[in-house]
Amino acid sequence: MSNANQTTDTQKDENPNSAHKESLSSEDQAQAHLQQLIKEQGVKPVTADDLEEMSRSTFWPENESADDFIRFVRESRTEGRERPLP
Fold it and tell me: Domain count of the chain?
């Protein structure tokens, strides 16, 4: 057996989850990765109390409408991107 094969076999033995991960679909792997990130980062779901608190917040300027904001975002995304049609 070559050293390359020995290293691979050793790595598989060191990580018992590697065989399990290989048998999961890419969607299942993505879901497992997401769950791991949630656990590591301590992310919690938004609760009704959180939503109530956000609704009382004054994070949006009174003199600016949502339409003004959307117009600004659209204009900034297309700014400098005009180009002639081929």
Answer: 1
